[in-house]
Amino acid sequence: MGHFPAAGDTEPSTGGRIARRRFLGVLGAGGGAAAIAASLGFRSGDAKDETSAGHMAGMAHPATAQRAAAAAPPSADEMDAHHRAGVEAFERNRLAPITAGTGALDAPFRKEGGRRVFELTAERTSWEVTPGQRVEALAFNGMVPGPTLRMVEGEPTRVVVHNRLDQSTSVHWHGQRVPNAMDGVTYLTQEPIRPGETFVYDFTPGPSGTHMYHSHHNSTEQVTKGLAGALLVQPAETAVEPAADRDYLFILNDGLGGFTVNGKGFPATPAYTARRGERVRFRFLNYGAMAHPVHLHGLTYEVFARDGYPLPQPFRCDTLTIAPFERWDAIVLADNPGTWAFHCHILSHAEGPAGMFGMFSALHVD
Which long-range contacts (CB under 8 A, 24 or more apart) does 347-350 make? Predict the structure, then answer.
């Protein structure tokens, strides 16, 4: 990512220097969205423990909005300092994580008699969304989003689900054509997996492509709080999908900790990278309750699949709207060097007086 000037490179008014020092001091000690909120007079968790920078901007909770209206607006120097500090923190995150925990890591599996076997454990955990902003999550294997399950079309698969929650749960294989008894909808296709119990799902993956799995019991709470993950099915014939040099997940959620990408809010969101000339595949998945138009600056999507199914004809665009629980696949040709903003273009999900937050990331092309 390109160099950003240090906070001391300019000499604003005295008020700007004080605000900048206060803000950068907190941020350097591990602050993030919570620190930005504090610098503007907001407190994390006023309405829920999921309060985020997006909520801080007055977009979600009335109590926060009332305080925002009552608070004096930041000066130009203060606002600039906040924006710069967020970008500098994002740069630090690109070099070394500034929050604990990484979501969507590939799940390990074992082979048993020609069957690929995964283990998922549902349990409560504390998840750091931005530096210093922790929320209570319901997670598979302790991460948000849950571990990425990589399967092969036509290869029998077993997923053993252990429930360590204080409520029942189940797992639905979103986009997969499974036997009805394996579909994971409580009381419709199976009994709930009660606290302390284990359930075994057996199915043969198909169709191929980008899919997901998620709870289908008390799903408004369980899914938005983290009980969901990517399910990627490799086609039996690899020529079915376009070639790519890199393969990235871009998972959107608007329930746990505000507006997030891969379980994190800016400046802790993933910083994507590519070398000039590479073909980069992005898999967009939306676990939230809102649609999010994801815009990439300076480069172009070639969209080739929706919900795992190849499109009759790929199309090009630079803003792609992902509805709740849709999946879209696109190739980006990294032919334009630079650091390119990559964000939800509902602006109240990505940028405010305190700078970028929430669903904001970047693609750096060397």
Answer: 348/54, 348/57, 348/59, 349/54, 349/59, 349/254, 349/259, 349/292, 350/259, 350/266
Q: What is the pLDDT of residue 68?
A: 52
Quote the DSSP letter at residue 46: S
pTM, full prediction: 0.82
Single out the residue of 333, 273, 271 nearest to residue 299, CA to CA: 333
Q: Indicate if 248 and 325 belong to the same structural domain.
A: yes
Instruction: Note whether 136 and 229 are same-domain residues.
Output: yes
Predicted confidence at residue 71, as pLDDT, reads 72
d(CA 294, CA 345): 6
Are 355 and 296 within one domain?
A: yes
- Identify the domain containing residue 188 by its residue range: 110-239
Write out pLDDT tens, residues 41-63: 333 333 334 333 433 433 334 34
Do residues 180 and 161 both lie within one domain? yes
- Is the pLDDT reported for residue 123 higher than 60? yes
Q: How far is CA 33 from CA 23, 131, 273, in A?
A: 11, 7, 24
Instruction: Give the count of domains, the chain.
Output: 3
pLDDT at 46: 35
